[in-house]
Amino acid sequence: MHKMEDILRIHLETDQLVMYGTAESSAGCVLRGVVSLDLNQTTRVRGITLRFTGKVTKRHSFRLGNGQERVHEEANSIISRTLSFLPTSKQLPASNYTYDFEFPLPGHLPESTRVGNVYVVQYTLEAVVQRPMLFLKNYTACRPIHISRRPEEDEMMLLIPDDFYLTMDQHPVAVSDQWINKVVYDFSIPSKSAQQGSQIEVSGHIHLRTDTLQIRYLACYFKEYMSCRQDTRTLRSNKPRTHSRLIHYAQVKNSYDQFVIQIPIPESPDDCQIDCLNDAVKIRHRLKFAISVMSQDGHVSELRVMLPIKIVPGVPAHHDYLPAYDDQHSSLPYDPAVMAALLQHHQQQSTSRSLVSCVSSREMSPFPRLPSYDEILTR
After folding, report:
1. Which residues form the Arrestin C-terminal-like domain (predicted)?
2. Interacting residues of 39 by C-beta distance below 8 A, sequence separation 6+
3. 356: pLDDT confidence band, cut at 50, 70 and 90?
4. Are 284 and 275 a contacting pair, CB within 8 Å?
5. Hey, where are the domains in the chain?
6. How would CATH label the architecture of 160-312?
7. Of residues 307, 296, 125, the one with CA closest to residue 213
8. pLDDT tens, residue by residue, 210-243
9. Per DSSP, what are the bridge partners of residue 259?
10. Are 127 and 47 in contact (CB under 8 A)?
11. Residues 255 and 222: beta-carbon distance below 8 Å
12. Out of 91-95, 159-163, 178-182, 335-339, which region has the weakest mean confidence (pLDDT)?
């Protein structure tokens, strides 16, 4: 008996969508993919639908007195789009069925964000195969979709001699100072912006100008700060609610004259979010350093230094977004033949899988990997 995830699946070109530009100027992006239905016996189906939804969930707590609180939750729909692949009831023979789809998404959609459990913006893509009988369970498949924003169009561009453009966030950042003429320190990073899934290389130097102090250790904290505005209609205070979390911690206990610290950035948006600033949410990242020194009499002091970091989506070099009217040359247009080749490749691999499974089912993967658009275009 087939499992639910083996019968109905959603294959996406990518589940990490990026909006380029601000909410007012962005042309949006396109969510593309294929829905596959693998039936091993004749099945009557009432309908096949695919729905893309987005919602924002807000939670507020009210003090009732005597140490008691009441939590109010409010969920509002942001977007809802539905496609129907089989509008009428039909009996489908045992076979593999594929349906391509695309959802053009407007550029004003808010980014996928989470501020603790008080403010959450999330998007979901759900496919449903409706069965005609009440006692027959529908086939369902669900995929979370993450939307981020990269406002490159609004950043100031600087032209350097080799005709290569850099934004302000791509230049090195450094901080250097001294403490009461006894401790000299400097920290630097090659770029203020860093992509998800990459690493931040921190170079530093600490020098003591006196023999009366001793460095105990150097601590490095990579932290994420999240804040959201309160709803003034239901709450008396409009003070933003702020949350923070520690993403990575590193410590140096020797070689202070010249050291390098590698800070890994998680690839998953659940572990590290993109920098965000809109009407409701603000997300920022900071590198914080703590230099612990001890005097001869045992007194311990701590020096604190901070470097700003901007986390951006880990996207390929080419832009896969809807171009503006004066920028259509920088985007690859949608080609129905490419999607047809994607479907044909999926059907061929599905057929070969059923033939080979009779010989050795363990050597085959549960489902073949669909080729990307770039792989098809190079053939």
Report:
1. 179-314
2. 7, 92, 93, 94, 95, 96, 97
3. very low
4. yes
5. 4-151, 160-312
6. Sandwich (2.60)
7. 296
8. 889 999 999 999 999 999 876 655 555 556 778 8
9. 204
10. no
11. no
12. 159-163
Question: CB–CB of 41/94 below 8 Å?
Answer: yes
DSSP state of 274: P
Amino acid of residue 258: Q
Output the six-digit token pair for 121.
């913006």
Question: In this structure, what token pair is assigned to residue 361?
Answer: 């089912």
Q: Residue 154 CB: number of other CB atoms within 10 A? A: 11
Rg for the chain (alpha carbons), in Å?
Answer: 27
Round to whole Å and give the CA distance between 118 and 235: 14
Residues in CB range of 220: below 8 A, 6 or more apart: 202, 249, 250, 251, 252, 261, 263, 287, 288, 289
What pLDDT band is residue 359 in, cutting at 50, 70 and 90? Answer: very low
Residue linked to tokens 């150097």: 218
Cα separation values, 49 from 29, 62, 100, 379, Å: 22, 40, 12, 32
Pairing of β 43-45 and β 8-12: unpaired
For tokens 């601000």, name the residue: 22
Instruction: Tell me the two tokens of residue 219.
Output: 């601590």
Those residues with Cβ within 8 angstroms of residue 361's Cβ, 6 or more apart along the chain or in another chain: none
Q: How many CB atoms lie within 10 A of CB 307?
A: 19
d(CA 260, CA 187): 10
User: What fold characterizes domain 4-151?
Assistant: Immunoglobulin-like (2.60.40)
3-state class (DSSP) for residue 90: strand
DSSP string, 317-359: SS--SPPPTT-GGGSPPP-HHHHHHHHHHHHHHHHHHHHHTTT
